[in-house]
Amino acid sequence: MKKNEKYAVGFLGYGRMAQAISEGLNRCGLIPYTRQAASDLKGGEWLKLAEERGFHPAPGNRPLVTLCPLVIVAVKPHQVRPVLEEVRPAAPGRLFISIAAGLKLADLQAWLPKTAGLIRVMPNLPALAGQGLTLICAPPEAPPSHLEQARVIFQAVGDVLELEETKFEVGMAVSGSGPAYFFLFMDALIRGAVRLGLTWETARQLVLGTALGSAVVARARPDLNLAALRDQVTSPGGATAEALQVMEQGGLTGLMATALEAAAEKGRRLG
């Protein structure tokens, strides 16, 4: 660090996702709260967290960047340009990691000096529980060390997948929007079980436990594709086969493909 850099990482904005990343870095011992700093709106709830967690509440955005060699841009997308233009004089030599949805590397580079490093990432909701999947990309000229720094940071809240930016919208349609699809499916299963006589609590326990266990098995058996795993549950002429036939007749797989296309296209338009 340079002598005026007192903290390892700074957060421009300390909302829900920034809080999760901050907590993950502290929990895994990579960067404790005492080596973190943040800036946000004056008088916000984040100041209470600063007192509880022990990170430094910077008096403003530009002072924060002055104090930190690595800065996570965690303000809302419409706030990114004015914030980056505000901190631009302090930005040379810093590495900025943006988690803002829809803002491409070219947009972000236009608002930062050429001597500032830049990485674009997109974490998803499960990062709040340390089980996230973060997409990551960098400009072609970025040194490998920048990607590695970002990878290490976001491994504190789950897995990290490098993906070229041209495929980011498709990736976000799966990982970014995906939790909503699974929540919808799980909620439908719960409601269906309740209609068949189970209590809400029992149905919820069954569905969430089954969903988690299924994901764990799928991850533990990369040698088997999902169709093979499905076949292990599906006896010919059995109850599972009957249910799967109803889903196929209803067009579930085709509907999911169409939904992904719609989400990816919307992401492109927002970008």
CATH topology of the largest domain: Rossmann fold
Mean pLDDT: 94
What class would the helix/strand composition place it in?
Answer: alpha/beta
Low-confidence stretches: none
Question: Could you say how many structural domains there are in total?
Answer: 2
Which strand order do you get reading across the main beta sheet? 3-2-1-4-5-6-7-8
Question: How much of the sequence is in beta strands?
Answer: 5-15%
CATH architecture type of the largest domain: 3-Layer(aba) Sandwich
| Biggest pleated-sheet summary | 8 strands, mixed
**Count of helices?**
12
The total strand number stands at 8
Identify the CATH homologous superfamily of the largest domain: NAD(P)-binding Rossmann-like Domain
Radius of gyration using CA atoms only: 22 Å
Question: What is the first-to-last residue Cα distance?
Answer: 34 Å
Percent range of helical residues = 40-55%
Q: Regarding CATH, which class of the largest domain?
A: Alpha Beta
Report on the structure:
The chain is an alpha/beta fold and 271 residues long. It has two domains: 9-163, NAD(P)-binding Rossmann-like Domain (Rossmann fold), CATH 3.40.50.720; 176-270, ProC C-terminal domain-like fold, CATH 1.10.3730.10. Helices cover 52% and strands 13% of the residues. It contains twelve helices and eight strands. It has helices spanning 16-27, 46-53, 61-67, 77-87, 105-110, 144-154, 168-176, 178-195, 200-220, 226-233, 239-249, 252-270, and strands at residues 9-12, 36-39, 56-57, 70-73, 95-98, 117-122, 132-137, 158-162. The chain has an eight-stranded mixed β-sheet with strand order 3-2-1-4-5-6-7-8, sandwiched between helices. Strand 4, helix 4 (77-87) and strand 5 form a beta-alpha-beta unit. The radius of gyration is 22 Å and the shape is elongated. The chain starts with 8 loop residues before the first strand and ends with a helix.
